[in-house]
Amino acid sequence: MIQFRWLRYLPSFLLPASYFTGFLLGGWWNYLTVIYSFLLIPIIELIIPVDTGNLTQEEELQISHYKIFDWLLFAMLPLIGLALFIFLQKISDPATPAHEIVGLTLSIGILLGTLGINIGHELGHHKNRFHRLIAHCFLLSSLYMHFYIEHNRGHHQRVGTPDDPASARFGESIYAFWLRSIVGSYLSAWQLEKKRLEQYELKVISLKNRMVLYHVIQFTLLIVIALIFGISSMLLFCGAALMGILLLESVNYIEHYGLARQINERGTYNRTLHCHSWNSNHVMGRIMLFELTRHSDHHYKASKKYHLLNNHDDSPQMPTGYAGMIILALIPPLWFSVIHPIILKEVKRLSQIAIAYAP
């Protein structure tokens, strides 16, 4: 029944559960989250049929204001906070073996990328100010608070154009994209804030500048961690945060790879449509990532909440789920051999998209 649709997202809690299980069992079990995310889920997604079904307009209207869908997101914040605490406590213990530290760092990095930044992304699009505040808390966990500025005011306006650092180009490897997107998005966030402040005749270097405020908050967090758990633990946390960032940028890579908006007769880019982002209807990814994989509809209407996103037949479809696509992308020759033929077919099928060639 539609009023119980929120139950379908409960399996998303298996991800933090795998982390806590690995921690409690200790030893090599600390790699359970890694195995679950990048071995079990890709295999399951190859077996389970995709779900292309959409809600009816009546069903969308009925559940559009159900608060339970928001509370499922909020519930992840204390879990991530607890996961970070036991991570820092464990790695600061001199008796913890090196292989456990590596497993814990990889596992918390996956949590920060797939839940921390992802849920921060979802809540950052909400109009409710409290939701946006919680979004910043999620993004703080990966030291990537400027994502809120660049994603909402930059990426969504420039997606599928050469001006967007988060749109991967045809022939660009994921490793080249990581550097271009991370650096370009950071610099873009500064420029966007500078432009906003100039409109109000405010000083750029002040706490009115969100970029300055974000840096103060993030450096304060690092200092607190260093004082309580030690410098080495703080550095390992930075490594885990970087892993979360690289997971986010890997998702950016597969979501927009090679797709470009065309320039119209007025010399401007056509409006962003469903065909300008890759879509995935693989069930596990949809549940675990709170429908992030229905990215085409998200870019078409960014304010639409995750549980209302639809599948569209004019969206390029990924051959497997996000985890499988990221694994493919990490091996560029294999990635190119799989995805390029699909892009060429989509360009021929849809007149609204072009190929975003790398320079």
Largest beta sheet: strand ordering = 1-2
Beta content comes to under 5%
Helix content: 55-70%
Report the average pLDDT across residues. 96
Count of strand segments: 2
Note the overall shape: globular
- Radius of gyration based on Cα positions: 20 Å
| Largest sheet report | 2 strands, antiparallel
Alpha plus pi helix count: 15
Question: Quick summary of this structure?
Answer:
The protein is an all-alpha fold and 359 residues long.
Describe this structure in words.
The structure is a single chain. This protein has 359 residues and is mainly α. It has 15 helices and two strands. It has helices at 14-25, 32-47, 57-63, 68-74, 76-91, 98-124, 129-140, 147-158, 174-199, 210-229, 231-256, 283-288, 295-300, 322-329, 332-349; strands at 259-261, 353-355. Strands 1-2 form a two-stranded antiparallel ribbon. Helix 8 (147-158) crosses helix 9 (174-199) and helix 10 packs across helix 11. The longest helix is centred in the first third of the chain and has 27 residues, at 98-124. It is globular and about 65 Å long. The N and C termini lie far apart (51 Å). The model has no long low-confidence stretch (mean pLDDT 96).
Can you give keywords for this protein?
359 residues, mainly alpha, 15 helices, 61% helix, 2% strand, globular
Strand and helix map with partners:
Layout: H1 14-25, H2 32-47, H3 57-63, H4 68-74, H5 76-91, H6 98-124, H7 129-140, H8 147-158, H9 174-199, H10 210-229, H11 231-256, E1 259-261, H12 283-288, H13 295-300, H14 322-329, H15 332-349, E2 353-355
Antiparallel strand pairs: 1-2
